[in-house]
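Subject: complex prediction, re-run

Hi both,

The earlier run crashed halfway through, so I resubmitted it with identical inputs.
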Amino acid sequence: MSRVRESKPPAAPKTPRPGLKNMGAMYAWPMGLWFTAFFIVPLLIIILYSFLKKGLYGGVVGEFSLNAYKQMFNPNYGLVLLRTVRISLISTLFTILLALPCGYAMARSKFQTVLLFLVIIPFWTNSLIRIFAWMSILGNDGFINSLLMQLGLTKDYLKLLYNQQAVILVSVYMYLPYAILPIFTAIDRFDFSLLEAARDLGATKPASMMKVLLPNVKSGVVTAVIFTFIPIFGAYTVPLLVGGKDSYMIGNIIVDQVNKTRNWPLAAAFSMIITVLSTVGVLWMMASSKKESALKTPGKAEEKR
Amino acid sequence: MNTNPFRQMINRLNVKRPASEPARHARRAFQRKSTFSFSFTVLVLTLVFLFLPLFVIIAYSFNAGKSSTFTGFSLEWYKKLFFDSEPLWAALLNSLIVAFSSAALATVLGTLAAIGISWYKFKGKAYIQTVTFLPMVLPEVIVGVSMLIFFSGIKLPLGLFSIFVAHTTFCLPFVFLMVLARLDEFDFSIIEASHDLGATEKQTMNKVIIPAIFPGIMSGFMMAVTMSLEDFVITFFVSGPGSTTLPLYVYSMIRFGVSPVINALSFVMILATVLIAFTLRKFLKNIAAAK
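This time it finished cleanly. Structure:
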């Protein structure tokens, strides 16, 4: 990415000269304090609550207890946990499989700006509207069913909505742009002459893709996986609106525990799982992106010429 | 070296970066070749997949009947939307109040922090950089639940103000990164020049730094407004009686009693999205051209 800057005359060092007043803390700490107060403290409270005892009428009692974590291993909740993992894995797999060729085609296209614009529009459209659109496509008197009935292909309604397949389909739809964008960014930065070289040296097309392109855009793929897996893992709206009894996910448990059952420690414990998972994901993403830029030293040497 | 994937992405979306000569040559060679490849076919199908639901819903919005079979063209639902849906417009007003106020605060905090972080070394820099990151990846449900529990802990009544606080929090990282991306291309020697010429810190800020990174600030602000307008999950937790925002209203429309008015509303919202995306794009391009 630093190609442009490094081809220019050496930029001024990014630190102020000694003698000038250091305003860094004054500029950055208002935001730092805001995050501490309204993000870190609430998260710490969640962690604390997950180790406390449930109050009789909601809330918590200030008494240490591992009850919430024990409850989580109740077979019913275990099932939901497994199901959530399964749904997120399958959706992520489909999303990435679609996003890879898309990102590649976009990076190779002459109409990058238009294509980016087209991918961003559904990404910016209100998520509820997008879910609702799928409800009116898959519903009992929705688009597909009325089409099939008019063509005389089916007599009875096909039950397309309110099941796990619908949740997976809509999740793929919702997070596809999130996956395409980082993959496109990575492939766009990729040096296409490497592919040419691989082909010249006799690699077949699929082999050059697998062995030259994919390893080089790995950080983009990792980012895409994180961007899709984590939000689907914590999904609430999609399973609520297009899912049925077989697609109740962790997100739904958390909301129900907070709003209906008012078992805050349990909701906090489930939130902890998602938080830990997300943090691990972010660390993985940062690490893979760092490793890649460290590997790219040959590119840097070329620029220094 | 910039290793933050979000920053790389935002950078790429903002400016088209010229690649090195051999890379550009190879890309051109690749672009010229075959038009119908496997990846291109997948891309076209994916775009159809992405837009089909939007088109279906737009078609339904012009349908005369209530059912999904097309019975004739009508603007009835639009008439209902514009002249017969007061609660919806009240919800929109709430949404706009929250969106503009929280985006404004997020822009001020985020811009200052981006300037501070990109130019200075100070205590706690690493901490601030790390905590900006998490809210972007953490699922909305978690952010919502933790805020709800926090607000009920400090006895803050739920309403427009609590929504404002929550929205500022989740919009901030995006504004911060947008401005940071802009600062990546900023030549910091002009700050030194301005100091050498006797400008005070405040003058440098107002007359040098802010005008130079203004496109970044603007796109950060716009992005924050859009994100705030679109958020449902977090708002769902931190809203109280009388503070229904547009997404909350849409949710109740979907959940309890679907009326085709929602199709008309969807089309209006999709149009608004396209318009915002388009102006933003154009705005950025004009700025780039004027440079």
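Residues 18-61 of chain B form one domain.

- K.
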